[in-house]
């Protein structure tokens, strides 16, 4: 049965397999926004890896996750979750804040690991 598959079908199957493998290896991290404060305020992620950050807004008002250093902006509606993909990044510290409550909704992502490894 498999011998009769065309090269195009094999290419599609390989692409689908590699896509699923990539998503399966993506680490997931969680942030919560409550009372206009991100918890945890410091989130550690590995260097040189793309990660998925899920942010749950438990407040009754929207907030915008904003980071100039990460080049990310995302409005998170009340009671909803949002997904932000981050990286791959070299080791270091990257700050973020809530644009609507910048004095209280603050945090940082600490990227740990060897910054020279790809």
From TrEMBL:
Superkingdom field: Bacteria
Domain EfeO-type cupredoxin-like: 13-111
Pfam families: Cupredoxin_1
Protein name: EfeO-type cupredoxin-like domain-containing protein
SUPFAM superfamilies, sorted: Cupredoxins
InterPro entries given in the database record: Cupredoxin, EfeO_Cupredoxin
């Amino acid at each position: 049965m498999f011998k009769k598959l065309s090269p195009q079908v094999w290419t599609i199957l390989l692409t689908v397999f590699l896509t699923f493998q990539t998503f399966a290896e993506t680490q997931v991290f969680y942030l919560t926004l409550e009372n206009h404060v991100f918890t945890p305020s410091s989130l550690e992620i590995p260097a040189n890896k793309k990660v998925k950050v899920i942010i749950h807004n438990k407040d009754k008002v929207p907030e915008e996750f904003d980071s100039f250093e990460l080049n990310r902006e995302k409005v998170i509606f009340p009671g909803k979750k949002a997904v932000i993909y981050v990286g791959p990044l070299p080791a270091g510290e990257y700050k973020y804040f809530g644009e609507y409550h910048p004095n209280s909704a603050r945090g940082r992502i600490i990227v740990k690991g060897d910054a020279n490894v790809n």
